[in-house]
Amino acid sequence: MNKLIPKEILQELIANEELSQMGMNRLDMVPVLRLFTPDAACTWVLVSGEEVEGDVILFGCCDLGLGFQEFGNVSLRELETVRGKQGLPVERDLYFRPTVSLHQMAEDAEAANVISL
Description:
About 25% of the residues lie in helices and about 25% in strands. It has three helices and five strands, in the order H-E-E-E-E-H-E-H. The protein has helices at about 5-20, 75-80, 100-110, and strands at about 35, 45-50, 55-65, 70-75, 90. Strand 1 (about 35) and strand 2 (about 45-50) form a beta hairpin. The longest helix has 15 residues, at about 5-20. It is globular.
């Protein structure tokens, strides 16, 4: 679909969104991918996505480097326009291999007193 999220990962995000619509809590899902700004402190750990009018609305935990995390939605189209302090675009963490749920990951980061997921 685009350079940021490969087709296989997008399909996994969409499948998770379908599970959430059948009643599974997205916070209990293991994240599918992590996006970040290499020249800023922004991180998005994402579990699901839904195609809407030529865009993909993603759900996960976002940390924009402001000292707190937030669960919510973000537009893939908007993420593609984000640039860090040196003008670098958002990247996908190629080595991200989560083993715990989104909720647990956010709790662990908060307990360790780290800003980013």
